[in-house]
Write a structure and sequence with these properties.
alpha+beta; Arc Repressor Mutant, subunit A; 3-stranded antiparallel β-sheet; globular; single chain; 190 residues; 9 helices; 2 domains
Length: 190
């Protein structure tokens, strides 16, 4: 039985490493080779405890949606940046994500005006990845970041406070900051 558990842990670890993205509970079950969601989550949590105790640069975190992500600790991002080959999200997609985070709630029309028509592909990927959610208002889509976005990028607390802090830091560097001109601001879409 112990050998079977070790094998299941190794399979989950391999899947998390190879995927380069958070894996859902169902994906962890498949990787472990079990039909039991309780067993898969127990094994993933055991693996997280082991990795977080013994590894220095990596961490295994459980996101609020129940998925698990094997990732680099924030303090090592600059060290490995020059070695990374293909990021999970492209530079352009990250720019779109940052626009949504800064402006939220942001309409697709506003984002197209700022980022161009390629934004539709970015938004689709970001929604599929769980970093954005949207609500429909007629034909218009209104985008906001999710709790998964905050967890994945290590953002704690209120996003409005974070925006103010970021603007203050940028202004402190003598950079001109202008907020995009918006035709219409939607306070509460629902």
């Amino acid at each position: 039985m112990r050998d079977r558990n070790i094998e299941m842990l190794a399979r989950i670890e391999a899947a998390l490493y190879a995927s380069g993205r958070p894996l859902s509970l169902e994906e962890l079950q498949k990787a472990a080779g079990t039909d039991s969601s309780n067993k898969a989550i127990k094994m993933a949590r055991e693996l997280a405890q082991t990795i977080n105790s013994y590894l220095h640069a990596l961490e295994l975190i459980e996101l609020q949606d129940g998925s698990f992500a094997l990732q680099l600790k924030l303090q090592y991002n600059n060290v490995v940046r020059k070695f990374a080959t293909k990021p999970f999200l492209s530079h352009a997609t990250l720019k779109t994500l940052s626009c949504v985070a800064y402006m939220q709630p942001a309409t697709s029309k506003q984002l197209v005006e700022i980022r161009g028509s390629q934004v539709y592909g970015h938004l689709k990927l970001l929604v599929q990845s769980g970093f954005l959610t949207y609500q429909r208002l007629g034909r218009l889509k209104i985008y906001q970041t999710t709790k998964k976005f905050q967890d994945y990028f290590g953002i704690d607390g209120n996003l409005d406070k974070l925006k103010k802090k970021l603007v203050k830091e940028i202004k402190g560097k003598n950079t001109t900051v202008t907020q995009p001109k918006l035709e219409k601001t939607i306070e509460n879409p629902i």
